[in-house]
Amino acid sequence: MTTFSLNPSPEGAPALYCGLPAGQLCLAFLTPGLLRVRLAQAAFAARRSWAVTPPDSHFPGAELAVNTEGDQVLVSAAGGLSAAVNTHAGTLRIRDAHGVTLCAELEPARPGPQGVRWENQTQPGEHFYGFGQRAGIQLERSGRLLHNWTSDPARIHALNVDPLYMAVPLFLSVRPDGPAYGLYFNNTYRSAFDLRVPGRLVYTAEGGELDYYLLYGPSPPEVLEKVGLLLGRAPLPPRWALGYQQSRWSYSPAAEVRRIAAEFRQRGLPCDVIHLDIDYMDGYRVFTWAEERFPRPQQLAADLRAQGFRLVAIIDPGVKVDPAYPVYQQGLQRDFFIRAADGQVLQRFVWPDEAVFPDFSCPEVREWWGDWQQRGLIAQGIAGVWNDMNEPVVFDLPFSQGGGGVGTLPLDCPQGPAGERSTHAELHNLYGSHMARASYEGVRAHNPRERGFHLCRSGFAGIQRWTASWMGDNASCWEHLEMSLPQLMNMGLSGVPFVGVDIGGFNDNATPELFARWMQAGILYPFCRGHSAAGTSPHEPWAFGERVERIARAYLRLRYRLLPYLYTLFYLAHTRGEPILRPLLYHYQHDPAVYHLHDQAMLGPFLLAAPVLQPGRSARSVYLPQGEWYDYWSGQRLQGPSTILADAPLERLPLYVRAGAVLPMAPEMAYSDEKALDPLTLEIYAGAGEFTLYEDDGHSYAFESGQFALTPIQVARQGSRVLLEIGARQGDYDPGPRRVVVRLHVGGGLPAQERAFEDHGAARRLEFDI
Ligand code: MIG
After folding, report:
1. In the predicted model, what is the mean pLDDT of residues 697-721?
2. Which residues are paired to 123 by β-bridges?
3. Which protein residues touch ligand 1 with a CB less than 6 Å away?
4. One of 388, 441, 540, 696 is an active-site residue; which one?
5. What is the DSSP string of 281-339?
6. Which of 246, 389, 391, 531 to mutate to test the pocket of ligand 1 (most atoms within 8 A of CB)?
7. Which of 12, 94, 208, 289 is the most exposed place for a label (fewest CB within 10 A)?
């Protein structure tokens, strides 16, 4: 006799409940392709105010049908997923509408609270991606043990160090002859994925309950769209944040910042942002300025602004213990700092020696932090906030005695807003996300006219809602350059699109060759910043000799010419959850040749890049998937699937364009808003394709109330003709009259055919004979 019932889930979606030997199972269908599975020993855990997913009732639900057969209860959503519960064995199998098995439990799941365990049989041909931030050069993650626990690994020398700064318990499954799907585990305690035993995928968590969402594709873009619905999407950044950003620990004093800015302009190297690392502060007191090094930050910011630069400043969560320091005084008085289990305010060593740590999970703490951020940074002319050290990491020794050793806060520290107190064990993974949220909301609340920019090191699933992320302290070695692509592509597949690594490497010194190759790869990073550690040799693009500077200039200029394309990709990330930098499998999910291709990437749907990632190379092999491709440099047409040997002297990043591509390009610029988009150049590659160009003012929130422009562009080939249809511009934003230059590439050694016209936003149809 099986016990089941159809009732709304605790958060209000149509659901099936089943009594299993291990506990109570709840299968909630948020949509026909989005299933939430929960298993609890007694009552289901109450929803947290800091939950990173919306409540079930936020989704439209699905129509459910239930059948029983022996020990089996079968529930299916009309036109969607179905789940078969073996109530005797206590296991679950999930299938798609065509009966294809997606997940099959091998053992009854263990619900917690003494630990959660879920053991799944993987299906033939399945490959696994995502999993948040990981080290190592593999793209696909089979064979690995992956922990979800935000950590500063101190020194990333080991290629497979795990875990890292960010924790995103989410993966994407792809297989040659079946659908793609994703699984997100909604549990913030320390957890792990174990893929070391072939055929098995085991998830364990040290607290909380078993609570996962199955996000059905069947294509990767459809999975990512659901990831966006469930975990949120990235806000549209100001356009300047897509430009090149230059950082170092630290450009100090102010005169040094001015010198760096002047060098960029004198040398014709495009750049939008300079970062201020921790030495601008007074004794590492957050929201203060060192008088002697930065006497007038506002003046500095204004002078740089006149040259097209913005400043971004770093902030750490640790607040210096100093009774004469207002941030400390206020936080103490209002009880905003985390206390130890014994009730004492917890003190640990970070940069300012003894420091205390705000509990950013409380809304009133976030608001207070946002006010300080406004007073201390934004009002001083700072345009963006760089949030560091928020795993959170603490030192064993005072920094003044060498720092040394890294750890975090004790897990039994009470944390959380009033009415839902928990401990650091549950909130640790969220510390960075909550700090980023404070940062984002603070800037947004105080500056309703200008989009902010935020950068953050740690974070949990959903971090994309608040901030861009960089991958922490890499090193100037070839392995770390090679690692950057799979790392960033898997972040994109984890729902976090605005990502980058330190170009040139943070620790140690880059060689000229490494730096040149890193620049070529770096212009593909959605977040494009060079950064280096204190004590390393200079790492600015001119620090490696003239040849490397020329290479850096050429690739930075290419990045800037691509800004209209890139900005549209950011819009698609914002509206559809699309990754910006993506592995080939995102578009070619049924081609096993791309499943392990870690060293090629696609920037949006049209550009395929194959950076050189080893020293001493002047050529590399490149895989071109099914379809026609064009060599970006020579215009030569190539037929996929094929593997070619690409010429790659130091000056050359192997770069390919998909047939049917539309690449909207800007004039050359020294910084992103130096010039209007005039002329707008459309580089068209004969074939079939479409692209909708997105434009707006680039910096305000007016786009949220319709002040944007969409221009649909279609390319088609009919025999020896290529048709280009540019649709009428839609939306309220008017970029003004401008020249459009269309350049059609046809391959075969022929030059591009060029046409130009005055554009006022009207529809236009062009025909080319080829
Ligand atoms: O551990 O602020 O990852 O980008 O330059 C050093 C100094 C603390 C770590 C960041 C790095 C930054 C550095 N910070």
Report:
1. 97
2. none
3. 249, 277-278, 314, 388-389, 457, 472-473, 531
4. 388
5. SBTTBTT---TTT-S-HHHHHHHHHHTT-EEEEEE-SPEE--TT-HHHHHHHHTT-BPB
6. 389
7. 12
Respond yes or no: is residue 502 known to be catalytic: no
Report the mean per-residue pLDDT for the chain: 97
User: For residues 753, 757, 761 and 762, what is the CA-based torsion angle, rounded to 10 degrees?
Assistant: -90
Q: Check residues 560 and 404 and name the one with the higher pLDDT.
A: 560
CA of 151 to the centre of ligand 1 (A): 13
Instruction: Return the ligand 1 atom nearest residue 277 CA.
Output: 2
- CA–centroid distance, 699 to ligand 1, in Å, is 28
Question: Within 13 A of 332's CA, how many CA atoms are on the CB side?
Answer: 18
CA distance 540 to 557: 16
Q: Does residue 674 carry a catalytic annotation?
A: no
629, amino acid identity: W
SS3 481: helix
| Residue 1: pLDDT over 70 | no
Q: Which of 56, 391, 426, 502 is catalytic?
A: 391
Q: Please indicate whether residue 673 is annotated as part of the active site.
A: no
Residue 154 has pLDDT above 80, yes or no: no
- Residues paired with residue 642 on neighbouring β-strands, in sequence order: 624
Q: Using CA positions, which residue lies closest to atom 3 of ligand 1?
A: 472
Q: What is the pLDDT of residues 473-528, one digit of tens each?
A: 999 999 999 999 999 999 999 999 999 999 999 999 999 999 999 999 999 999 99
- Find the helix or strand (DSSP H, E) in which 229 lies: helix 220-231
pTM: 0.98
Q: What is d(CA 662, CA 725) in angstroms, rounded to the nearest whole number?
A: 11
pLDDT surpassing 60 at residue 157: no
Q: Does the structure show a pLDDT above 70 at 766?
A: yes
At CA 522, angle to CA 517 and CA 523, rounded to 5?
110
In this structure, which residue's CA is closest to atom 6 in ligand 1?
389
Are the C-beta atoms of 613 and 481 separated by less than 8 Å?
yes
Quick: pLDDT tens for 609-618. Answer: 999 999 999 9
pLDDT in the model for residue 42 = 86
Closest CA to 171 of 493, 387, 430, 388: 493
What is the position in ligand 1's atom list of the atom closest to the CA of 473? Answer: 3
Residue with tokens 């199955």: 214
How far apart are alpha carbons 527 and 227 in whole angstroms?
21
pLDDT tens digits, residue range 260-293? 999 999 999 999 999 999 999 999 999 999 999 9
